[in-house]
Structure formats: structure tokens, C-alpha cells
Amino acid sequence: MLNKCIFYKILFLIFLIFSCNKQIKENISPKKHLFKVLSPENTGVKFTNQLKEDANHSIINYIYFYNGNGLCAGDINNDGLTDLYFVSNQGENKLYLNKGNFKFEDITKKANIESLSDWNTGATMVDINNDGFMDIYLCSVSGILDFEGRNELFINNGNGTFTEKAKDYGLDFKGYSTQSYFFDYDKDDDLDVYIVNHAVHTNLSYGPASHRKKRVGLVGDVLLKNTNGKFIDVSETSNIFGGPNGYGLSASIGDFNNDGWDDIYVCNDFHEDDYYYLNNQDGTFTEKMSEAFSTISRFSMGSDSADINGDGFLDIITLDMLPEKESIIKQTEGDDAMYNMQKQLKKLGYKDQISRNMLQINNNGSYFIETASYNHIEDTDWSWGPLFADFDNDGFQDLFISNGILRRPNNLDFRKYVSSTFKQYGSDNSLKWLYKSLDKMPSGASSNRIFKGNSQSFEDKTGKWIEDKPSFSNGAIYLDLDLDGDLDIVTNNLNEKATILKNTTDNSNNYLSIKFNYKPSNKEGLGTKAIVYSNGLKQFKQLYKTRGFLSAGEGKLHFGLEKNVIDSLHIIWPNNKVQKINDVSINTNLTVDYKIDTTPYSYINKKEKNFFKRENILDFVHSEDNYDDFFHERLIPNRVSIQGPAVAIADIDNNGFEDFFIGNASGKKAKLFLNNGFSFKEKKITHIEQDLLYEDNVATFFDADGDSDLDLYVGSGIELLRRKNFENDRLYINNNNSFEKSNNTIPNNFNNTSSVVAYDYDQDGDQDLFIGNLSNPNSYGDKPSAYILINDGKGNFSKDKEFNLNIKATAATWSDINNDGIKDLLIASEWDSPKIYINNKGNLKPLDIPNHLNGLWQSITTFDIDDDGDLDILLGNWGENTRFNEVSSDAPLKLYYSDFDSNGTKETVLAYKKDNNYYPVNSKDELASQMNIISKRFINYKDFSSKPIEDVLTYESLKKGKIYKVETLSSGYIQNNNGNFNTFIEFNYQLQLAPINSFAEITINNKKGLVVSGNSNKTGTYHGAYLALKGMFLETDNQINQLSNYGIDAFNGQVKQTGVIKMKNKNLFFVLTNNEAIKTYTFR
Amino acid sequence: MRKHIRVIILLNLIFISCKEKKASINITTNHIHNTVDQLTKIMIHDVFSPPVASRIYVYPNIAAYEVLSYNNKSYKTLSKQLNEFKTLPKIKLNNTLNKKLAALIAYMEVSEELVFSKQKLITYKDSLYSNWININKDEFNEAKMFGKEVANHVKLWMNDDKYIETRNMPIHNVLTKDPFSWVPTPPAFMPGIEPHWNKIRPLIMKSADQFKPEKPPTPSFEKSSDFYKELIGVYNIGNKIIKEGNTSEKLNIAKFWDCNPYVSVNKGHFMFAEKKITPGAHWIGICKIACKESNSSFEKTIYAYTKTAIAINDAFISCWDEKYRSNLVRPETLINNYIDDNWLPLLQTPPFPEYTSGHSVVSGAASEILTKIFGDNFKFDDTTELPYGLGVRTFSSFRDAANEAALSRFYGGIHYMSAVKLGLEQGKKIGHYINNSVTFKNK
Question: Could you tell me if residue B262 is inside a domain?
Fold first, then answer.
């Protein structure tokens, strides 16, 4: 017995020793990262942006106290090595000479670059006086608290010393400056400057959006024009906004629409929209945010632009502060708190904004498609500076993001603490009290992030390329410090030493680094574009130094090259002349001199000759009522009341041309338009007009009573005041082209109708109907019944008792998929798989389809997409450009439906999987707004955060409820393989960017295909709107084009349906969008 | 002299406790005041809206009162007097029952059911309980049993008041084009709170609209209209007070009676709610002052609290019924949209429609109750707001305080004069009705 015991003890000891060994090994051999952190002792760069807080200087009385600072780079002594200038908010800025091999010398003292301003911000190196030596322009905040000073210009004397001369140049701007952006907006070959300034909260900054048109001193951004070396404020005449609401934190300069003139994207924090200024080529700008962008960051901070997909147009990234970690999300005030506020802001003229990063993919310079969630880069926490660059020299742009805030002011427990303990002590004392309470604000240390790009998507390399170690990094730049051909990274950190990351990319890939020697007045050639053609791929870059956040890099363009040859290099100079270089050697640091005999560059507009012509032929505006589903059921995943407009198309009057019925939302009249081949005439129908209180969701023309004319069935949705009588479906019988409502011929349907399709499914010579419902208007989680109405031949309808289906139907169609001459029934649904029924003369038998297809299906149709001669089943899903981008059959989204708080009302709670647990999507406050019990169960947000759904709602209450699942959000098709339907193929990524609501057949340039449309405004602020499906023309599964290339305006709303109607001499293409006017185009 | 007495009492206590094994648990009015204060504190922490707060004050008090009035010659039970409040089941009581103790226990047991931060109340309760157990376990247990019994009776009745059902009712929809309809106000733009409060069962009133006030002046932009004059009146008084500066008496009045638990403060990078007591809590505070000033007995204190809380409860139901009926826009909205986009009211506009003024109705009702109990011309120093950083104000009577409280909403820029005048009238009617139709004291 004793022996045995000893034996086990020894065994245990051995085990311990082994396991210790293993741990030690892991600890002592540090993971090798692509970027090596260099120690300050070795480099000599010991700079720290050290913050000094006191009761009178803190985040309590200056909102941007924790924004940190940046740095700028340039070769100040022309020795070929790039030197670094670090900016400290309050302390001493430092200038370091690059001595090669990552050794730096601090020359701050003798260089005489001491700032006289109290609060420094961004800096940029630029040769302002064209003497061949880099000068430094430094921004400062003055006029807030006791901050004094102004922006400063340190002129390089050429001998390692500087003299401050901002006043001489007219650059002594005084205000709340963030950063300066030097560029030549008026093409006079000298550098002008756009200075981003920031607002602070005032009564007026919360005023209407139109306040931005005012010009407010200190706060408003300014554009300064260089006139013979003197900078003159031309903001007003150039149409630059300067209002009290411009919380400018960064800008990106570039020729976004490829017209040869540089444009400006300005990032604004808080409720103010970002600005997108297009250069009018006459010294003025036009702000086009609303036209070109659908989805923008709310708390926009740093930004960058680069062509990441090689299409020759600059894409844009803006950063925000959406946390990624579950515990932080639930302890942080998020967009959920903004639902009500957003409505107010909209009234005040602001755009809907969402607090997350945005990746804006430029489409031919005319509009941007937002894809951050698709790329999994939407939530990188408190993020400041993004940098696009090719860090591994593989020819594709990667992405670095600097992260971290000293303390999180939007921590909910902190706010609650302050709220319940704060008292009116008088303004001085309350300030002191608040300052003391800052300790209670949790740290916002967060790892910098790096993502590898491949021109289509990004892959997270944090922890592999760089350390996954929380920090407070603000400004960052990339540059080749050791001239070895790869890009190193330098970050300025708050209260920590600056970091130099040495890039250790090996020589298996290649590079080209280009410096320009343009005209003397812009020697560095800021604004110059370069296109590298290599191995059939194109890389396009434009030289601007000021990027990311509060920082500016060196004046070079860096190209990584996977292949070891460059076919050709095109340089487009700021004056839009092009210089083509064919024999470019790789792996060199090239300097290109401007040659006078260059030819003008012609910017090619990729748009095909307009195939479609915009012609307003129909006068109809769909106008939603004010019903808000979230006011009634606060926890549902999306609204179900905005399904319209209803539409039915058929030749009513037998003149050979199809007529048009369009139903409206509750309170607005539906309209019937008769088509005479040339135009449409509205025909007033008394019975339909009388029913204006109904919400028209869907409609179809069909012969109900067998008298050979077409009658009309309209499926109803949710009425504004929830009067049940106005939520029933209706049948209007056609009597000599006048429609009369029939009574008691169809069963009541008080559910939220989503589909009605007619077909003689039992082949008895009359038209029967399939009716699908999306929801029970009183309880979202209830799965309503879908049913078939059998026609008795005289227009009396009764339900087919053999067909029983409870489903959240969204769309349905009859289509013959097995080639037996009889149409089969196909149904799309949410929180379920699509349902396919093979029709054997009225006997509907479910067809086996692939497993794991539970989705949020929005549309269904049949089309031969793989061009093999049979019909495939096309399915529109929610898409992958969503925060639920990790959904799979192993990690399905779950919707729990039960009366969780036993108060007699059932709730739905949506949950997602993360780290092997399910967490509620909704915040504590949202859950509590529907379930009082949550407030009692969790007093603090911290207690609530990281609690899986079982703990939040209790295991018992979950057990008694229903669970619905979504296993895929990808749109795609079930392939018809000689009559077998056992493979689901996902569409190409362009069709995954938003929900697909409709497929419509069309022939463009003799090519038969489908117009794919969709988008959704149905979700709350957790998602924001889904508006990235701008309208696609789908020919085959790998032949997909933007419809805008053919002359159709990008779809920026929630499109219900598109389609084609034949006219006498032309065709009409229409786009019906929820809450918008109909748009029509003609084509031949 | 006083010191001497205290020493003697103390000595006596020691003496008695040495001599007899079990002392009696001594419950004083301070116990009840402290417990009410504790409840107020937790309510501030949990941020309850003014109507919900009125409900939280009233039921614990009723439970305590029912304990005291059980088999009581001087005080009459409220059962059958309050709507749907049934008679307590017959309970056999020993002569030894410590009724004050049982009343306090009933108070805490019901309170616990009503707040979010239950644990805070339980901690408070447990420390008292363990103390009492130490003094006299039997006495405590007996009181606890009775206190809980009454508490349960009250809780069952309370839970039937439609409060739970109203939690799931729709949010007040404000998307309207009528310029005179209420819309959320800056800076937090909160949705209108408790739009369904009129569905809560009143305690005395027969229905929520029993004291429906007359309509406010017809909204109009016509300069000669009464409404427009009142609107301009709000704008002008605000500007006048600002001119007068920090020493303005009107400013002090406005601030003193703010009692808005929703004030959002914007500091640097963050916005937080600056919590305050509700108008109901302020009048509960005045009731406490009156009880203390008049050296009221334990029984009278509970009686005064209960009656005041009942009046406040019904006042909120009546007022909220009118608020969402008339759904009138706040002066801040109209002034910003049509007169001066940079104008700010001195007080932050609370998140619900304008007419009538909640503070006016509540003050009218509570002051009539207190006047009836403690008499008119009851002069007092109102120290209620001291813990919240505001000063002391002196009033010659409860009605004097009510008049000032009502007027403060006009000075604060959050109400038109009609809401103040007619609101006060509405409240007084409710007060009189309660004074006349409920019997607390047996004659």
C-alpha cells in the first residue's frame, strides 16, 4: 500500500518535471515574428509620449486627451537614410538622425526644434522652401483649457539646425489642429495644404448638420493655397466645410475618381459625417459623401487610401473603435445605445453611421462598396492608424492597424459609477471629483493588428507577423529604415517607449522602391502616381506622405513583387504627364527624374457605352409609414414591417402590353398603371384606393374566377396602428377592368404575408395559389403557416389540407425543375432551409437538398447558371458582409424563442458562438428593456459581460423554448446535376456583400443573365444597414459585372425587385426600392 | 440637562439588560426615516423614472401602515379603501407583538421586491436583522412572521397593478410631422418614458382620467395666440435669468426643484447621467422633515409617509395620462426650431411630453395631504437637496413650497405657464379627493 503510494508520487513528480520542462521551453524560445521589436537601448530611440494628467488637464475637460501622437519621417541631412521626428503631446519632441543599421542619434538639442506650443499633434516633413532640405510642419491645439501656441514650421537650415518661420509663410494657424496634408490641389505645381482641425462638444456642435456650412474659427478645417510661398486661406471660396461640428481626426488625399486632380476624404469623429470632397478642377471642391458612400464609420479616427485590389482606383479605410473581445463589447457603450439618437441625427441631416471600421472599395471612381465585415477587419477595438503597404513583398497590399487607449471613457460601469456617485459640487469641485474617479476607468490597452492581403480579402497575422501584445500605440508609419527592400514600422506609444519593428522578410520576393525628382516647386513629387505591371498584375500607387493617424512617412513608393520581373513602369506626374519606363531593374531604390518631353496621360473611363438610358416613365413613390418593429418587440433580429412595395405585372386590358400594379405602405395609395406600348396611364380603382390603410407586401395577377380576365390578390403586412382588419389579405375581382373587392372567397390571413404565387398545381384547369407568411405580427419568433389555396373553379378558395408547413417564408416560385412538364414549388425562408417540393399533379413531395442549408434566405429562382442545359436553384441569402461572418454549421447563429421572464410575452434572443460559447447579441440594457429580470440578475455590466446565454437567460428558461438556427449566410445555388440536387455552390464574393432580394432575367448586349439586387435597411444599429449590393449582372457563376457599368445608377437602397417590361419599340427596366421612387431605364 | 437624561437612560438600559435576560427591541422613528433614505439611495443608483419611483415608495409604506393599523383603535386599515385592496386574512396576534418592528420588516420586505439592486437592500436589512436577533430572538421572529405575512398580502395585490404588463408595451412613437407633437429632446434624445403609465391601477382615483385637466392653449405660431405668448414667455424668462447671472433667485429656485433623474452631463469624451432624486422623493423628504419637526410618533410618521406616497402615486398616474393624451411639444424644441437654435433651457428637458407639469401635479397633491396632517403655515427648512449639492430653502407652508416647485419648471425653461398653473390645480384636486375619501384615523 505504502509502496504504491510512493510509486504514484514519483510518477506525479516525473509528470511535473516534464510539464515544467515543456513550459520553460515555450517560454525561453520566443516566437519568431516577421517583425522584430528592436530595443531602445540598441537603436538609441528612447522617445516616450509621456502624458501628464492633473485635475485641470485630463480627458474630462479635453475630449482628445488620450489620442496620443504620431511621428514623421524624412531625410533631413540628405545622406540617403530616412530620419525620424517624434511628437509628444506635452513633452519634448525628438529628432533622431538615422546612422544606418538601425542606430539613431538624438539631435534634438542642437537642431533647435523645440516647440513653443503647449499641446502638439500631427507633424509632416515637407520641403516648403524648395531648397532641397526637409522642413518640419508641426500642428498644435491652442485655445482649449490653458493650451497656448500655434502651428509651427521648422525650416531646415541645411546644417542640422532649424529655425521656426511659420509666420513668414502664413502657416502660423492657431486653433484645434490635428494634422496637415500637403498637396497640390490647383495644379500650379506648388504644394498647398489642407489642415484638419477638430471640434469639441458645444451646444452648436450638436445642432443640425447644416451647421457644417458655417465657418467657425479654431475648429473648422482650412485649405491654404500656396501663392508664391505665402499660404492664403481659401477655405470659403473652395467650398470647404468649417462648422462647429467638424470633429476632424484625419484625412486621406488622393485622386479617388481618376480624373487627374486630387480629392480629399476627411474623417470626422462623433455624429458628424465624414467629408468626401471631389476636386472640381477649378480651385473648388464639391462634397459628395451621400452620393458616393452608403456606410461610414461613426467615430472615424485614422484613415488611409491605397489600391488594394489592383483595379487602378484608390480604396479607403477608416478606423473606429468596435471591440472584438466579448467581455469588452458587453462593457462598452455600443451602437445599441444610438438607435434612438440615430433617428434624431437623421432628422438633423446626418447620415446613418456605424461604430466600426470601414473598408471602402472604390468602384470606377463613381462610388464605394463597403466590405470591412466581409474581410473580418471591422472590429479591431480602439484603433487609430491604418496603413496599407506590402509588408511581405508578395505584390499585394497588407494592412497594419495601431491600437489602444489609456482608459476607456465609454466603459458602461464607469459611467454608471460616475452617474450614481457624482454630485453637484460646483464646477471646480466636480471637476476635481471626476478627475479622481478616472482610476475607475478601465485600461484600453489593445494589441496592434496586422493583416495579410491578397487583393480580395485579408487574413489576420497578428501574433505571427507581429507580437500579440496589448499596447497604447497611436501614430504609426512604415518606411525602409535600413534600405534592405522591405518596410519597417515605427509607432509612437502613449506612456511607453516608441517601437521600431524591423521587417525580416527574406529575399525570396522582390521589391522596387521609387523616389521622384519632379519640378523644383514640388521636388519630391507629392501626388505622383506609379503603375507597376508585373506578371499580368497591376499595382497602382500615389505618393502622399501623410497617412494613418497624426503621422507622415517618407517620400517614396514601395512595391513588393512576387515575380522577379517588371514588365513596365508608368509614372504619372502631378501635371498628368506620363513617363513610361520599360527596362526597370528590380530590388533597387530607384529615383525617377521628371522629363520635360513626357506626354499627357489619358485617364480611361471603364464605363461601357451606356446601354441603359434613364427615363422617368412611371410616377410612383413608395413611402414607408412610421411603424417601428423595435418599438414593439425590442429584441428581434430585424424589422419585418418594411417588405414593400408590392408589385404585380400582367396584361390586364389585353392590348399586348404588360400593365403594372404597385402597392404602397400603410396610409399611401397603391396604383395601377396601364401600358399602351409607349407610356403608362394611371387607372384609378375605387376599391383599391379605399384600402389605402393596408400595407401592401406582395401582389399577383391571376384568373381567380375562371372568366379569362385577370384578378388581383394582395398580401398584406403590418399596419401602422396594428388594426387587425387592415392586416388581412385581399382578393380583387376584375369586372370589365374595374376591380372589386370580393368577400369571403379567400381564408383570412392576418399574418405578415411575404409571397403569393399562382399556378394550377393540381392540373384541374383553374389557378391555385401558394401563400407564404414571413411572421406573426404579434410575435416574431412564431413560425406562421404557409399554405396552398385550392380553387374550386369558381373563385372560391380553401386550404389544401394535405400541405402543412410552418415556416418564416420570404419568397416562393413555381418552376419545373424535373422536366416533367409540371411546375414544382420552391420556397425560401428565414431561420430554416429552403423547401423544394416536387409536384406530382397536386401531390407535393419534399425534395432532398444538401444538409446544413439553414439560412436567412431572401429570394429563390431557377436559372441555368452553370450553362449545362438544366435549371439550377438560385438562392439569395443574407451574405457574408456581416458581423456574423463566422457562421457555419459548426457555429450556427441561434435564435431562442420563449417567455424567458415568465411575464406572458414571448421574446426572441439572438446568440452567436464565440470561443465555444453562445453569447447574446443584445446588450444588457437592450435585454433589460424587454425583460425587467435582467436588471435584477446583473447589477454591473462586468457581471454580465462574458456570460454565456445559459447564464443570462438561465438554462431552464432556454430549455422550455424553441431554438432556430442559421448555418450559412452565403448566397449560392443548388446545382442541378442530371436531376440530382445534392451540391450547394456559393456565389463569388461580389454577390456575398449584402442580402439578395431578387433575381430578374434580362438580356444585355445579347447576353442572357440575371440582375441581382437586394440590400437591407431592416436591421438595428448593431448591424447598420446592408447596402453593398449595388446591382450586379450575373451571366454565369464566374461572369459577374456591376450593373453600373451599363448605365444603371448604383442601388443604394433596399431593392425589392427589378424587372423588364416590353414596350412597342424598346424595353423598360425598372427598379423598385423600399421607401423610394421607382426608377426606370429604357434599352433596346 | 439633556445629557443627564441620556446617561440615565443608557444606565437603565444596561441595568435592565443585566437584570432580565431579554430586552425589548426598541424601534424609533429614526429607523423608519433611515430605511426610507436607504430606499431613496438605491432608487437613485438604479435610476428609476419619476412614475416608477412613486410606485416604489408607496407599496412598502402601505405594508408598514397595514401592520400598524391591524387591530388598531386609532388607525383604520386601508383595505377596501384602496382599489382592489382586500382585507388581510385573520391572523391571531399575541400581546407581545412588537408592531413597530413588524411594520419596519414589512416595509423592507416589500421594498426588496421593487428595486433592481436588491442585494444592497438585503445587506442593509440583514445587518438590522442580525442585530435584532441578538437583542431578542423571539420578539424578532414573532414580528418577522407578522411583517412578512402583511408584506406578502400587499405584494400579491401590488403585482396585479398592470406594472409588469406595461413593461412590454410599445415605445412611444414620435415620428410625426406635426410641429406641436412631442419629440425627444437634447442631449440624450431619450424616447418618452412610461407612455403606458395610465394603464397602472390607481390607488384611490377611480380611473386615470378622473382629474383630467382642461386642455392647454391651442398650439399656434400666431403671435397673438395665448400659446405663442406662453412660448415666448419661456424664452424670455430664460434669457432674463441668464442675464441676472449665478445669483439669480429664480435660477436657485429652478435648480433646487430640478429633481430630474435623467440629466445627461457631457464631460470631455463621455456623457453620463447625473443622478438626482425624483419630484416624488423630494416630497417624501419634506414629509420626513415635517415628521421630525413635529416630533411625530412612530405611528403618525408611517401614516404621514403612507398618505403622502399614495397621493404622489395617483398624481403621477393622473399627470402621465394627460401627458400622453395631449402629447405636447417641449418649449426647447419649438424655440430651437423656430426662434433661436442656440437657446438652452436652464434645466435639462426631461424625456416626456410637456403638459401638465409632473412636478406641479405632484407638489399640488402632496402639499394638500401634508397641510391636512400637519396644518397650514407649517414653516420649515427644506434640507432635502443637501446631499445632492444644493442648498437649503425655507418655506412658510407646504402650499408655499408647492407653488414654488411648480413655478420652478417655468423658470427652468421646461414648461409653459399653463402646465404649471393647471398642473398645480390638478394636483390639489387629487389631494383634496384623497383627504376627503380615505379614512386613516378612526374618529
Answer: yes
For B48, the closest chain A residue by CA position comes to A935
What is the tens place of the pLDDT at every residue in B197-208?
A: 999 999 999 999
Q: Are residues B255 and B135 in the same domain?
A: no
CATH number of the domain at B109, please: 1.20.144
Q: What is the model's pLDDT at position A29? A: 45
> Residues B359-394: pLDDT tens digits?
999 999 999 999 999 999 999 999 998 887 788 999
CB contact under 8 A, A422 and B272: yes
From chain B, the residues in CB contact with A903 under 8 A are: 164-165, 167-168
B163 touches chain A (CB under 8 A): no
At which of B138, B164, B190 does a domain end? B164
What is the domain-level CATH number for residue B251?
1.10.606.20
**Same domain flag for B61 and B200:** no
> What is the grid cell recorded at A974?
443548388
- For residues B186 and B157, membership in a common domain is answered with no
- Indicate whether B194 and B269 sit together in one domain: yes
Per-residue confidence (pLDDT) for residue A22, from 0 to 100? 41
Whether B341 has its CB under 8 Å from any CB of chain A: the answer is: yes
Phi, psi at residue A488, to the nearest 5°? -90, 165
Domain range for B179 is: 175-437
Number of domains in chain B: 2
CB contact under 8 A, A206 and B173: no
Are B242 and B134 within one domain?
Answer: no
pLDDT in tens, A606-653: 555 689 999 999 999 999 998 999 999 999 999 999 999 999 999 999
Which segments within A90-240 are labelled E, that is strand? Answer: 94-98, 104-106, 120-126, 135-140, 152-156, 162-164, 177-183, 192-197, 222-227, 230-233
B11 located within any domain = no
Choose from A62, A203, A429, A905 for mutation: most chain B CBs within 10 A.
Answer: A203
Least Cα distance to A321 among A474, A492, A501 occurs for A474
- pLDDT band, residue A432 (cuts 50/70/90): confident
Would B92 be classed as within a structural domain?
A: yes
Residues B235, B102 share a domain: no
**What percent of chain A has a predicted confidence (pLDDT) above 70?**
96
In this prediction, the answer to ipTM > 0.85 reads no
Pair (B304, B327) in one structural domain:
yes
Is B3 part of a structural domain of the chain?
A: no
Do B137 and B264 lie in one domain? The reply is no
Evaluate if residue B29 carries a pLDDT over 60.
yes
Asked if A426's CB is within 8 angstroms of B389's CB, the reply is yes
Listed residues B117, B135, B164: the one ending a domain: B164
CB proximity B47 to A under 8 Å: yes
A to B CB pairs, distance under 8 Å: 101
